[in-house]
Design goal:
Blueprint (H helix, E strand, L loop, with lengths): L14 H27 L10 H11 L1 H23 L5 H41 L9 H18 L3 E8 L2 H8 L1 H17 L6 E4 L4 E7 L3 H21 L6 E8 L6 H18 L4 E6 L5 E8 L2
Parallel strand pairs: 4-5
Antiparallel strand pairs: 1-3, 1-4, 2-3, 5-6
Length: 306
């Protein structure tokens, strides 16, 4: 009997996304109405500053192009309404010059705010990304990995699907640094991170969790699938390292959980122990274990020599 497939979060708009889009449309409409109401109220009542809040909200939520387009629309609406309300009759040219000046000032103010908010949001997003990304390798850092592990563990409990956690350690990393310098060591780590990122699925989480230690979180992955993936990854990494003449490899420990463990800490401890078992078996080895209903590790495959 086939399992029902859960709807992807991207397959249908969520209630939160619909409300967000509705809020942005309402903010844009409010900005246009305020801009149009200003000239009607006359010069004694200032409405322009009230447009800044909805324009800022739209810019933050939809980006600079949309925010600047709304700024232009608000300035144009104010110009058109003002010209219709006060530009007719004698002195039309003088009124036109005033309204053009007001249009330019409003567009400058509204557009400047949109630009500043867009730059601020870009910096906030970048800082958030850096807080969750390892700068050297470009993959997740320890904080992001812990969050992903907690999330995938809960999902495995709900769906009763296998979950595999892999720990990888660079062999003789200190010796590599001593022989070739720390720049070579950094390059090795960067190559490992790039290979893990390119060789895995979007739903997987490769992460650097220590100096020369990496983790690979593989949701909905059986032991057989993990073995095939790790075999390919080790071959690609071995080729990349050998091409550069670096005398190192990876010791890999992989634990597949057929039933979810009690906690993320337990899951990490078992994967870390499997990785050290691989090191004891010979550098460059892969050690596989599977945790079943009894939540006890059981080796299912002999360590794979380099």
């Amino acid at each position: 009997m086939r399992r029902p497939v859960e709807a992807s979060p991207r397959s249908a708009p969520t209630a939160g996304r619909v409300l967000r889009h509705l809020g942005l449309w309402l903010a844009a409409l409010a900005a246009l109405l305020i801009a149009a109401a200003g000239p009607i109220a006359g010069p004694d009542v200032g409405f322009d500053f009230l447009c800044l809040w909805p324009i800022g909200l739209v810019t933050w939520g939809a980006g600079l192009p949309v925010g600047f387009a709304l700024s232009l629309a608000c300035a144009s609406a104010s110009f058109a309404v003002g010209l219709l309300a006060h530009g007719a009759g004698e002195g039309m040219q003088a009124h036109l010059a005033v309204h053009l000046w007001n249009f330019a000032v409003q567009l400058g103010v509204f557009g400047s705010q949109s630009t500043l908010l867009a730059v601020l949001k870009e910096r906030v997003v970048r800082e958030r990304r850096l807080a969750r990304t390892d700068e050297l390798t470009g993959i997740a850092n320890r904080r992001a990995f812990d969050e992903a592990a907690d999330r995938e563990l809960e999902r495995a409990r709900r769906q009763l699907r296998p979950l595999t956690l892999v720990y990888l350690d660079v062999d003789d990393f200190k010796r590599l640094n001593d022989l070739h310098g720390h720049s070579a060591g950094d390059e090795v780590l960067a190559v490992v991170g790039l290979t893990l990122r390119r060789g895995t699925r979007r739903l997987d989480t490769p992460a650097r969790v220590g100096g020369d230690e990496f983790a690979l979180l593989l949701p909905d992955t059986s032991l057989r699938a993990a073995a095939a993936l790790l075999g390919r990854l080790r071959a690609h990494l071995g080729a990349a390292l050998a091409e550069r003449g670096w005398p190192t490899g990876l010791s890999i420990g992989s634990v597949t959980f057929q039933s979810p463990p009690a906690s993320t800490a337990e899951m990490v401890a078992l994967a870390d122990a499997a990785m050290y078992q691989a090191k004891r078996s010979g550098k460059g080895a892969i050690h596989f274990e599977e945790v079943g209903e009894a939540s006890s590790p059981r080796p299912l495959a002999a360590p794979m020599p380099a």
